[in-house]
């Protein structure tokens, strides 16, 4: 802990003038040096204006209570101009229900919500448990492998394929499209233009349109495509809106849970006393799952746009301003969460975190995400698996998806 705070103070987040501090730079997330920047903003300028960034000027909201105030006031802070700090060019814009307000938002959300209702979750738990067992049984013993690809991506992609009733053998396409959807095009990278990104996503649309056409002519079923195809609210969506909702559901179900699965293993290795608490008392699993999701904060921010003039934390926000709620910072706010920089699986009020957001857009899939993590940890403990993290994680250079591309581990047989 102390070591971590020392690193914060030495990092340039504490040295550069506040007016020049831009917390949206992806490299700070990739090299894990972002914490000092947010700690400083929470102390010195909790509602901070950054004039110059790759994404234009924006406000950073960094304290827990201010974030809740913004997130729960959708009249003043609208998601309709986008939910990430990146500006998507008009030509590549795809509507989806997270970018809608009342009443369309609730109508579309309610259309797909049975997929995470009690009936569906009960069925999914049995399926997820059998898949978790298969995945864990199939892992190499006494050799190093990447936990991200073999477990985190595999489990979440299998679950997502079931939600869509998507051909199982093609499931890695979901991972591919999800990764493309959250990529901001950059010269020199695999996705180097918005056109390239759109080409990949149009393959996604074509594939799902075939599934839609099959399902619309069949009896209604409990899968995401059938739910949308048979609802009067969504059955006449334009293709761009269908694609937007697909991206929302694919990214929602994929990247977030994937990175919580990886983060959980990493944190248990960084805090062996917490792992011991869990092995001594498996009843703590549900609590540990919430703490993993808080500590990871898989979605680092959500963006809103001011629909009216208002005051947040004493600062005047003007109509049209871009407002970024940094959940990743609010989740480390010591005023609300005691000893917030530590991973403590049995902390008081463990469910009190921002990772799922608040207000009308609060995460639709949160119970499913928690279910996957819970079942995974139940099976790890039940099987007595000794999983050792044997190297540093590789982190993604993103200010939106807070996660990992690799975590080397070895299971000792
Ligand atoms: C919305 C996080 C898992 C589907 C959100 C939001 C966050 C979030 C931060 C926006 C909240 C806001 O704007 O106030 C997470 C995290 C997850 C997770 C941290 C895992 C640990 C899932 C899963 C699904 C899902 C498994 C499955 C389908 C959605 C959808 C929305 C959403 C559809 C949009 C809700 C709306 O606009 O009404 N999620 N999510 N999420 N999430 Fe999740």
From TrEMBL:
Q: Does the keyword Disulfide bond apply?
A: no
Keywords recorded for this protein, A-Z: Heme, Iron, Metal-binding, Monooxygenase, Oxidoreductase
Oxidoreductase keyword on record: yes
The lineage's top-level taxon is Bacteria
Stored InterPro entries? Cyt_P450, Cyt_P450_B, Cyt_P450_CS, Cyt_P450_sf
Recorded hits in PROSITE patterns, A to Z, give: CYTOCHROME_P450
Any GO MF annotation of the entry: iron ion binding
- What's the cofactor? heme
Q: Which family does it belong to?
A: Belongs to the cytochrome P450 family.
Protein name per UniProt:
Cytochrome P450
């Amino acid at each position: 802990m102390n070591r971590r705070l020392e690193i914060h103070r030495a990092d340039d987040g504490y040295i550069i003038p506040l007016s020049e501090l831009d917390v949206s730079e992806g490299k700070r997330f990739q090299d894990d040096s972002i914490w000092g920047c947010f700690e400083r903003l929470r102390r010195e300028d909790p509602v901070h204006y950054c004039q110059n960034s790759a994404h234009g000027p924006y406000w950073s909201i960094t304290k827990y209570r201010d974030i809740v105030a913004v997130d729960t006031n959708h009249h003043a802070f609208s998601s309709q101009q986008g939910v990430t700090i990146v500006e998507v060019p008009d030509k590549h814009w795809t509507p989806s229900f997270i970018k809608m307000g009342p009443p369309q938002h609730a109508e579309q959300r309610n259309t797909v919500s049975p997929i995470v209702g009690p009936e569906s979750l009960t069925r999914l738990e049995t399926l997820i448990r059998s898949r978790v067992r298969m995945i864990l049984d199939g892992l190499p013993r006494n050799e190093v492998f990447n936990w991200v690809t073999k477990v985190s991506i595999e489990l979440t992609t299998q679950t997502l394929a079931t939600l869509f009733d998507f051909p199982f053998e093609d499931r890695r396409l979901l991972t591919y499209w999800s990764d493309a959807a959250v990529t901001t095009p950059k010269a020199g990278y695999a996705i180097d233009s918005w056109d390239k990104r759109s080409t990949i996503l149009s393959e996604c649309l074509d594939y799902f349109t075939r599934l839609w056409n099959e399902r619309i002519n069949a009896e209604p079923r409990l899968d995401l495509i059938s739910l949308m195809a048979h609802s009067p609210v969504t059955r006449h969506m334009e293709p761009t809106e269908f694609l937007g909702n697909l991206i929302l559901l694919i990214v929602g179900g994929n990247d977030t849970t994937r990175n919580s699965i990886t983060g959980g293993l990493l944190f248990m290795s960084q805090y062996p006393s917490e792992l011991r608490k869990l092995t001594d008392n498996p009843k703590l699993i549900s609590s540990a799952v919430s703490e993993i999701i808080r500590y990871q904060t898989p979605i680092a921010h959500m963006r809103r746009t001011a629909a009216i003039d208002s005051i947040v934390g004493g600062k005047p926000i003007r109509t049209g301003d871009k407002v970024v709620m940094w959940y990743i910072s609010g989740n480390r706010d010591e005023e609300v969460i005691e000893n917030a920089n530590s991973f403590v699986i049995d902390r008081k009020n463990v469910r009190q975190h921002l990772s799922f957001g608040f207000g009308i857009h609060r995460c639709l899939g949160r119970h499913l995400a928690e279910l996957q993590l819970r079942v995974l940890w139940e099976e790890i403990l039940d099987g007595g698996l000794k999983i050792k993290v044997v190297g540093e994680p590789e982190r993604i250079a993103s200010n939106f998806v807070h996660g990992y591309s690799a975590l080397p581990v070895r299971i000792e047989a």
